[in-house]
Design brief:
It contains nine helices and 15 strands. With 331 residues, the protein is an alpha/beta fold. Strands 8-7-4-9-10-13 form a six-stranded mixed β-sheet, with helices on both faces.
Length: 331
């Protein structure tokens, strides 16, 4: 990008016509001659032609000096931009009930955790400036990954999550408490927890309603997502007698508690019973949870005034030498 840092210097160009007028105003001739008829037939000397061009070299040098004062520059400039950027903690339930096989994706039956992984991976891929972290919970809650913008690492950690890794039960209150600690690590204008579970809080030291009250006091919004259908759900088990087989078990989701958590913190509650609903939920959250953060701009330019100043001084030097030697004027 080319620019002049001080373009108002070009106002000095207005003085050049005044200089031309002053230098070429009507003057008395230095020598009087009765007639120039005798020299009419002579051919013009090359030196005389150069003498006529010499004043133009002087004026062109002045123009170059003005251009140098305007400070021509070449470089790039990045202006401050507004970009979305928030802190998001994904709190994922890894309890045994997440093994229920009541989701389908690409024609295959998958369990609830696999469905959540697929949709969350797409959600992560749509973020660009947010810091994201992962908290997992079962009987206890753990920080799987602190807040980071390393989306490749987030996706890799997400892929390695396994059912039962945090215990068989569901500690929703503890999951919220650990998530709040991670959000406190890095200050942000907006802090979000996306809590994903399919069960009822039956473990942990912190009650979900108490944790939700703390989150509300800290200005943290919690979106809760209930995963799976109602009633009985199929599970694949390894029976020591009959081998691998499917059994149906009752699932127990505390929707009232999830709704209360979301309402207390200003978030939303969603229910996802299939992949389409789950994908739609994350589309809504992705569109809704964006805030504006100003990224600082900067400018880097290279000064080019020497490319005008050096020729200008060279022309002035030539003009001074010739005006005082070869083309000296006689008063």
């Amino acid at each position: 990008m080319f620019r002049f840092a001080t373009p108002y210097a070009f106002g000095l160009l207005l003085a050049i016509p005044l200089i031309v007028w002053y230098r070429h105003r009507r003057q008395r001739p230095a020598m009087a001659a009765s007639s120039v008829q005798a020299a009419a037939g002579l051919a013009a000397s090359p030196a005389l032609m150069f003498h006529r061009l010499l004043p133009w070299a002087y004026y062109f040098a002045l123009v170059l000096l003005v251009a140098a004062l305007a400070r021509p520059q070449w470089g790039m400039q990045r202006l401050p931009i507004e970009t979305p950027g928030i802190n998001i903690i994904l709190a994922l339930d890894l309890s045994e009930s997440m093994a229920a096989l009541d989701f389908q994706h690409d024609g295959k039956i998958i369990n609830r955790l696999a469905a959540v992984k697929t949709v969350v991976a797409d959600f992560i891929g749509k973020r660009s400036t947010d810091r994201m972290g992962v908290v997992v919970f079962g009987s206890q809650a753990y920080t799987q990954l602190p807040l980071t913008r390393d989306y490749a690492t987030i996706a890799a950690i997400l892929e390695r999550l396994e059912i039962g890794a945090a215990g068989r039960s569901t500690a929703i209150g503890d999951a919220i408490g650990i998530s709040l600690k991670r959000l406190a690590d890095i200050e942000s204008r907006s802090n979000i927890i996306i809590l994903i579970t399919d069960g009822r809080s039956n473990s942990g030291e912190l009650q979900p309603e108490v944790a939700a009250g703390i989150a509300a006091g800290q200005g943290v919004k919690i979106h809760t997502i209930g995963v799976g259908g109602q009633g009985r759900a199929p599970f694949l088990i390894n029976d020591p007698v009959f081998g691998r087989r499917y059994v149906y078990q009752e699932v127990d989701m505390d929707e009232a508690a999830l709704k209360a958590i979301a309402e207390t913190t200003g978030g939303l509650y969603f229910r996802a019973q299939d992949m389409e609903e789950l994908q739609g939920i994350y589309t809504v959250i992705d569109a809704m949870e964006k805030t504006k953060v100003q990224a600082p701009g900067f400018a880097e330019y290279e000064e080019l005034y020497l490319f005008a100043m050096i020729p200008a001084f060279a022309l002035l030097g030539i003009w001074i030498i010739l005006k005082n030697t070869r083309f000296i004027s006689i008063p």
